[in-house]
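To whoever picks this up:

The nightly regression suite flagged Lactose transport system permease protein LacF as changed. Nothing in the input moved, so I suspect the structure step. Input below, exactly as stored in the fixture:
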Amino acid sequence: MALRPAVNNPINAWLLLLPAVALIMAFTHYPAVNTFISSFFLAGKGGAAPEFVGLENYRFLLEDKIFWKVLKNNLVFASCTIPLSIALAMTMAFLVNAGLPGQAWLRLSYFVPTVLPMIAVANIWLFFYTPEYGLLEQVRRFLGFSGVNWLGSESTALYCVIAVAVWKDAGFFMIFYLAALQQIPPSLGEAAMVEGASRFTYYRRVAIPLIMPTTLFVLVNATINAFRMVDHLFVLTQGGPNNASSLLLYYIYEVSFKFWDTGYGATLTLVLLLFLGLASILQFGVLEKKVHYR
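Regenerated output under the current build:
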């Protein structure tokens, strides 16, 4: 007996989508809407009901000098960590894909920072940066230089955190680049060699354009990481000195859970979401047009 063809039923499709839609609504859209509403209220003290203050939180945000300093820090942090992480990850992927001796150990050494817990990574680097007896200070003392308080100076604290973030993220991004490089047909490399192209020319003209979809994916993740960085700050600097290394998400934590000003914390959260939204529009609306998918 012939089987009857399945009848298209939109109800079945919606039932299959329902679990995913429910999770997205519960953990993405509802918190976003609730945060937007909370930004118009002043948190009640001592269990009192929140007070509606309209745009007062936004007016205070424009006058908040700490916010502008933290925002500048985060923009500097993002402008340094994103290109450095991507460039370092791509370079490491090229090295471990080149068939060098000890390739397995090289690949392992690049990937080890990725599997370490964030707090463990921060504690390792805290030992490097510790004044007088830290690893960096021992090297400087051996070379005859005077000591530097790396995490206690406003001029160096943020860049120390940037170094930790790049060291942590580059190995993770390398895995995606390595997978993309291994998908490139070997015949393209052989053709480039026959034509007399150097290895640098092959990477610039062939390999890098072909892995652009991976670069877009890594760029999105690197941007998100740059604006959600908070773990390392708890161990390394706690935003100091004088908010010189504080980032936007850490400032949101301080306002919301140290000072219990949840209304202003919600306002800051919306600013963070705005920056991530603008970054997404730029990446997918502009950069994706230059990405060629195979």
